[in-house]
Amino acid sequence: MNKISFSKVLLRRLLGLAAVIFGVITLSFCLQLFTGTDPAETIVRKQSVFATEEQIQAVREELGLDAPFGERYADYLKGVLKGDLGTAITNKKPVMENIRGALPVTCMLIILAMFWVGVFTILIAAVSVIFKGGIFDNVMRIICIIGICVPSFWLALILLTAFAVEIPIFKVIFDGSLKSLILPSISMAFPVMCISVRVLRASVLNELKSDYVAYAKARGFTNSQIVYGEVLRNALPAAITLFAQYCAALFGTSALVERVFSIQGLGYYLMESCESMDIYGISGSILVCAVLFVLFNAAADILSSIICPAYRRKLI
């Protein structure tokens, strides 16, 4: 694919990305509007159980909740563009400030988890293909099936009990060090790794049926040279897409693991917002997670098109 074609594909992807993000912002606004919870009433009730309707209405007017739909929607769009997601009901701080404080530790946790996923997925899938039908392949198939069914929070509790209580190698509570992120990152990575191994293995086996593989075998290349040299690169787009989707999804689904290990991350903040019915914290956290999901998917498409020539041709 020439540079002009690639530029058109990239432009089309960016326009689609902008449209999807706009839709996500709109859905986030609708979440605030149609959730059935009145933020003004929640704020007033936290201050006084015996609040009057006049007090609630005064707060509603102060927050602009009595404005017409179009005006509220326009104000929300302007606020999002400026990085203003509202003020949290729980601690009276800007939601974006709360998210900025919680996001770094979650990013560290997910980066470490996806590092395990990336390294072991490629290694295990490649070895399983090379020794297809062997003991290693069959054992990994059973482990992956079990791993897919295991909830990450249950695995987190098992690892915490085993390696922080019974065998005190790690600390029970997160202390800010990289070492304290190992157990939670493994808890989050294991189910994703099991799914990724199965997907990449199937993709590699499908690629092995291609004509260029038969030609490589005819030239005398070994299975290892074929798998690691060409097949793995052509089979990666499916795994990269899955990798990006799970990487983004973990920002929202990390809540239970963060709760088990007392990690004050984005998932923990989202769970706290849900418990306290903080609609601004909920919608802001979900918006950030959704935008990250869209961005990661777009990045996966671009990366796949760079790595795999066949994938680039499909995008034209």
TrEMBL record:
Residues 103-304 form the ABC transmembrane type-1 domain. GO terms for biological process: transmembrane transport. It is found in: Cell membrane. This is Dipeptide/oligopeptide/nickel ABC transporter permease. Pfam families: BPD_transp_1, BPD_transp_1_N. The chain crosses the membrane at residues 102-131, 143-169, 181-200, 235-257, 277-303. It comes from Ruminiclostridium cellobioparum subsp. termitidis CT1112. InterPro entries: BPD_transp_1_N (IPR045621), MetI-like (IPR000515), MetI-like_sf (IPR035906). Belongs to the binding-protein-dependent transport system permease family. The keyword Cell inner membrane does not apply. It is a multi-pass membrane protein. Its main location: membrane. The lineage of its organism: Bacteria, Bacillati, Bacillota, Clostridia, Eubacteriales. GO terms for cellular component: plasma membrane. PANTHER family: DIPEPTIDE TRANSPORT SYSTEM PERMEASE PROTEIN DPPB-RELATED. Keywords: Cell membrane, Membrane, Transmembrane, Transmembrane helix, Transport. SUPFAM superfamilies: MetI-like. It comes from the Bacteria.
